[in-house]
Amino acid sequence: MKLKEILTVPGMSGLYKMIATTKTGFIVESLTDGKRMPVSSTQRVSGLGDIFIYRNDEEMPLGEVFLKIKETDGDKLTVNPKGTDDELKKYFKKIIPDFDEGKVHASHIKKMLSWYEILKDKVDFAQKDDDDSDISLPNKEGNDKPVVKNFETNAPKVDQHSKVAPIKVRKKV
C-alpha cells in the first residue's frame, strides 16, 4: 500500500482506504478495525501523500517524516503520542531540527505519531510514490505528445465583437 492511497477524513478519527465510489461520494474502510462507511463528496478529504510539514527553508513530505521516525525509533516510539506538548516538541526537534515551531503545533505532532503507529507495519515509507501527472497519452500518429481535448458546453456562444446596448434606467416620477 502506498502513502497516497491512505486518506484522512476531518471529523472521523483514524486513517482510511477508499474502496468504492457512489453517486454522492465514496465508501472508505478503516485501517484499524476494517469497518466501512460512506463519506460525502462535500467533505474535505486529504491523502497522506499530499501532506507536508513546514520547515524553516522548505516543506517536507509526510513520508519523509515517517521515514526519519522509523530510522531513529524503529517500530517502537520512544515518546508517548499523548504526552505533554513540551515532550512532543522536544522529540520532534530531535527528528527534524529545522521544523517551523510557529506552524507545526503539538496537536499536529500527536496526529502524525498516531498515524505512524497505525501505518508502521502496513506501508513501506522508503518507497517513493509515483506522480501520475507525467502520464501522457499517445495521439493518433503514435507520438507520446499529450492529447488535448476541447470541451464544448451547451451555453450560448458570446461574440466578442457584438455591440452592447447601454442599459436604460427608469426614473421614478
Architecture blueprint of SSEs:
Layout: E1 6-8, E2 16-21, E3 25-30, E4 36-40, E5 46-47, E6 52-54, E7 59-61, H1 62-73, H2 85-95, H3 106-119
Antiparallel strand pairs: 1-2, 1-5, 2-3, 3-4, 6-7
Helix pairs in contact: 2-3
Characterize the structure shown.
This protein is α+β, with helices and mostly antiparallel strands and 173 residues long. Among the domains are: 3-47, SH3 type barrels; 52-119, Arc Repressor Mutant, subunit A (Orthogonal Bundle). It contains three helices and seven strands, in the order βββββββααα. It has helices at 62-73, 85-95, 106-119; strands at 6-8, 16-21, 25-30, 36-40, 46-47, 52-54, 59-61. The strands form two sheets. The chain has a five-stranded antiparallel beta sheet with strand order 4-3-2-1-5, with no helix packed on it. Strands 6-7 form a two-stranded antiparallel ribbon. The chain is globular. The N and C termini lie far apart (74 Å). Mean pLDDT is 80; it is low at 132-140 and 147-151.
Question: Tags for this entry?
Answer:
five-stranded antiparallel beta sheet; 7 strands; Arc Repressor Mutant, subunit A; 173 residues; two-stranded antiparallel sheet; 3 helices; 21% helix; SH3 type barrels
Structure summarized in a few sentences:
With 173 residues, this protein is an alpha+beta fold. The protein is 21% helix and 16% strand. It has helices spanning 62-73, 85-95, 106-119; strands spanning 6-8, 16-21, 25-30, 36-40, 46-47, 52-54, 59-61.
| Mean of all residue-level pLDDT scores | 80
How are helices and strands ordered from N to C? EEEEEEEHHH
Instruction: Please outline the major beta sheet.
Output: 5 strands, antiparallel
Low-confidence stretches: 132-140, 147-151
Percent of residues in helical segments? 10-25%
According to DSSP, the number of beta strands is 7
Query: Cα distance, first to last residue?
Result: 74 Å
Instruction: Give the CATH class of the domain at 52-119.
Output: Mainly Alpha
The count of helical stretches stands at 3
CATH topology of the domain at 52-119: Arc Repressor Mutant, subunit A
Rough shape? globular
Named CATH architecture of the domain at 52-119:
Orthogonal Bundle
